[in-house]
Amino acid sequence: MNKTVLIFLFLLANGALAQSSLETITVFFDSNEFTLLSEQQVNIISFFSAENTIIESITVEGFCDDIGSDKANIELSKKRAISVENFIKKEFNAIATIVEGKGEIALSNTTSIEQERKKNRKVTIQIAFTKINNEAGNNEKIIKDIYSTYKTFSDKLEVGDKIIIKKLFFKGGSTLFQEEEEAEEELKKIVDFLLLNPNVSIEIQGHVCCIPPQYKDAYDRVSGKTNLSETRSKKIYDYLIGKGISGDKITHKGYGRQFPIPDAEEQFNKRVEILITKI
Questions:
Q1: String of b and e for 179-216 (b: at least 16 CB within 10 Å)?
Q2: Positive/negative CA dihedral, 55, 29, 99, 65
Q3: How far is residue 190's CA from residue 184's CA, in Å, rounded to a whole number?
Q4: How confident is the model at residue 46 (pLDDT cuts 50, 70, 90)?
Q5: Strands 21-28 vs 272-278: parallel, antiparallel or unpaired
Q6: In terms of CB atoms within 10 Å, which end of the chain has fewer, N or C?
Q7: Residue 153 zone, left/alpha/beta (φ > 0; ψ -120 to 50; rest)
Q8: pLDDT tens, 158-188?
Q9: HEC states along 136-181?
Q10: Measured between alpha carbons, how far is 77 from 27 in angstroms, rounded to an integer?
Q11: What is the mean pLDDT of residues 218-242?
């Protein structure tokens, strides 16, 4: 049994997976064009980079307006579908199950012909997916086991040691904290440690949850880019700078979901870690 199936069964057994759902995304094209415009890419990026989505299948279907011959329209609709397929594969390493060109869509409303033709120059993407329940649980043993692999600021630290920022949980797809007061308490510990140890340098490491391992990062709804782990680490960086910590002592980097915590609830992968880089 492969690793993906084992993870799926583990999550299923623990009630972490919801029922399969369907989502349809529609993107539009200019007349006689098959290049996917940047403004049409946004909805695709937003969905495929969601932090709590497992993709099961993808169907891509291209369409045309009624201008042109049947043969030309079939060819153009195929090119549109392939353009979208290539974008999804390149950006997210996701493979479409079905990619088809459906040709033209006949006019049904002759009172606003051009508006209807614009709506018919499209590609529809139908995705079957499952959402992971990424709410943090209250299993104290699991939490204790997760934190036991990390050092704390009160330990004797060496270069290469990592400290996880406890109680620093993010809302999905954003840099917003679930609990502002708890997050503030944890961030103050970093400030105090760096002020007491002026020779120490750190890297702030951002991580995201739930996206498949082949995805580069999750989508940040604020920045509009697939750089959520980076923006989360930068938020902590900006906080420390605002508290008077020198920028010479701290760096920040986003690692996407390259390093998930083994067997932990996905909520714990929406995390920030502190790496000791200099003592």
A1: eeeebeebbebbeebbeeeeebbbbbbbbbbbbeeebb
A2: positive
A3: 10
A4: confident
A5: unpaired
A6: N
A7: alpha
A8: 999 999 887 787 777 788 887 888 889 989 9
A9: CCCCHHHHHHHHCCCECCCCCCCCCCEEECCCCCECCCCCCECCHH
A10: 12
A11: 88
Instruction: Outline where the chain has alpha helix (H).
Output: 3-13, 38-48, 70-92, 113-120, 140-147, 180-196, 228-242
Tell me the CA distances in angstroms from 214 to 92, 145, 166, one per residue in order: 7, 27, 27
Q: How confident is the model at residue 5 (pLDDT cuts 50, 70, 90)?
A: very low
Check: CB of residue 207 under 8 Å from CB of residue 215: no
pLDDT for 275 beyond 70: yes
Do residues 197 and 158 lie in contact, with contact meaning Cβ atoms separated by under 8 Å?
no
Output the six-digit token pair for 133. 């329940």
User: What are the two backbone dihedrals, phi and then psi, of residue 61, each rounded to the nearest 5 degrees?
Assistant: -130, 130
Its sign, for the CA torsion 74, 75, 80, 81, is positive
Q: Taking the CA of residue 120 as centre, how many other CA atoms within 13 Å lie in the half-sphere pointing to its CB? A: 21
Type of residue numbered 206: G
More confident residue, 9 or 258: 258
Question: pLDDT tens digits for 88-114?
Answer: 988 777 789 999 999 999 988 777 899
Three-state DSSP class for 73? helix
**What digits encode the pLDDT tens for the residues 49-70?**
676 677 889 999 999 999 999 9
Using DSSP, state whether 60 is helix, strand or coil.
Answer: strand
